[in-house]
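sry for the spam today, last one i promise. struct tokens for design, 284 residues
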């Protein structure tokens, strides 16, 4: 097994490792420590079914099952093999989407920050990849915080943000959610903007997503301006790695210190990804 940096911002490629082979304790410990240090691991040319992906994912913690709405979509499409695996896809079969998020752009976000105990890791495996588009961008929120101008950093000190749960990262209103008219009252968890990573002990910027976010205690106009400034800052190219997918790519990222977004792609091409998510803990 060899570790090769994925460009200058974050992440490492793990070479010469078949993750579906039984991994010994030393290998798992090395992977976990590389994941904590670099924020993102890439394994190329893997051959996984749903069960093998779930088995590998458990090395990073306990799996968090998809919400009921996603499970229903899959069971209606008749595609559930492993109930802990999510499907991200634009493919429609027999009039039924086999997965979520479609073919549009997905905005910058960290996964499910709108819950009280957001996931620690997200794991995404590419089965079918469109010939163009659909790249996933990752940004390092340790670096963004570490290099933040003092004046901007001072404005978030001790502040918490509200993380709206109403919309998906693709901009769709979730099943049963109401459109948000007042960001100070949107449903969703409240987390510190500067959080302490529970395993590394480092401080990271924790923004969730821009849409309907709100910095608690500020007038809405001031909160909007501060959030715009923070988002402009933390998505600068020097913090970002852009991943162009190949079939068989497996990515594991740390949601506590890495955000991501996805480019759109042509709806007429197929993109099928399997995903798992690892349970996290409360933020502080
Ligand atoms: Fe995501």
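last one done:
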């Amino acid at each position: 097994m060899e570790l090769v940096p994925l460009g200058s911002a974050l992440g490492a490629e793990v070479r010469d490792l078949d993750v579906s082979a039984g991994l010994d304790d030393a290998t798992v410990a090395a992977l976990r420590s590389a994941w904590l240090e670099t924020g993102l691991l890439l394994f190329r040319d893997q051959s996984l079914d749903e069960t093998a992906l779930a088995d590998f994912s458990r090395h990073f913690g306990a799996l968090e099952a998809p919400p009921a709405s996603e499970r229903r979509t899959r069971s209606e499409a008749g595609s559930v093999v492993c109930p802990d695996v999510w499907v991200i896809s634009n493919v429609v079969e027999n009039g039924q989407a086999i997965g979520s998020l479609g073919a549009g752009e997905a905005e910058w976000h960290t996964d499910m920050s709108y819950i009280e105990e957001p996931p620690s890791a997200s794991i995404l495996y590419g089965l079918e990849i469109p010939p163009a588009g659909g790249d996933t961008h990752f940004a390092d929120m340790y670096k963004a915080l570490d290099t933040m101008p003092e004046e901007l950093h001072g404005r978030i000190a001790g502040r918490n943000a509200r993380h709206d749960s109403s919309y998906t990262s693709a901009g769709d209103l979730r099943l049963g959610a109401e459109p948000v008219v007042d960001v100070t009252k949107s449903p969703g968890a409240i987390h510190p903007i500067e959080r302490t990573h529970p395993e590394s002990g480092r401080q990271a910027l924790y923004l969730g997503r821009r849409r309907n976010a709100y910095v608690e205690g500020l007038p809405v106009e001031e909160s909007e301006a501060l959030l715009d400034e923070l988002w402009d800052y933390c998505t600068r190219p020097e913090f970002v790695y852009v991943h162009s997918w190949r079939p068989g790519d497996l990515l594991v990222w740390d949601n506590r210190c890495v955000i991501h977004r996805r480019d759109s792609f042509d709806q007429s091409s197929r993109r099928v990804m399997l995903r798992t998510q690892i349970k996290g803990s409360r933020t502080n």
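The mean pLDDT is 94. ok im logging off now
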